[in-house]
Amino acid sequence: MTTPTLVIMEVCDKFKTTIKEITSTTRKHSVTDSRAAICYLLRKYSRLTLKEIGSNIRPDYDHTSVIYMIQKSKDLIDTEFDFRHNIQKCEAVISQKMVNETKYCPCCKQVIYDTTA
């Protein structure tokens, strides 16, 4: 499973939203918080550019939207217990699954990075 898929699925599960809501144009608080969490976690756990992160959410999300959402997440982590708790739960699952899927070079045992994720 690619990192964007894993992150989006975990955020939808923990934040009680759907992929359809995430990709829609709705501005409901719960959905925008979920989008912000996805941007924050993709920036932290993937090697995607800001533009690529945005395109995983909606085609019209440019890099400035992603920057705004990442900052919004950081602010919510500092001020909102429920948001912080959900992010921590997502991070625990994501990091565990990423460790289980990490590939190593057979000769030197260094991590082989998947540039598509």
- By CATH, the superfamily comes out as DnaA protein, C-terminal DNA-binding domain
Give the overall shape, derived from the CA principal axes.
Answer: globular
* Global mean pLDDT: 89
Helix content: 55-70%
**Portion in strands:** under 5%
Please state how the strands of the largest beta sheet are arranged side by side. Answer: 1-2
Q: Count every helix, treating DSSP H or I runs of 4 or more residues as helices.
A: 6
The largest pleated sheet is described as:
2 strands, antiparallel
CATH topology: Chromosomal Replication Initiator Protein Dnaa, Chain: A
Into how many domains do the coordinates divide? 1
Task: State the low-pLDDT regions, or none.
Answer: none
List keywords for this structure.
117 residues, mainly alpha, two-stranded antiparallel sheet, 2 strands, 69% helix, globular
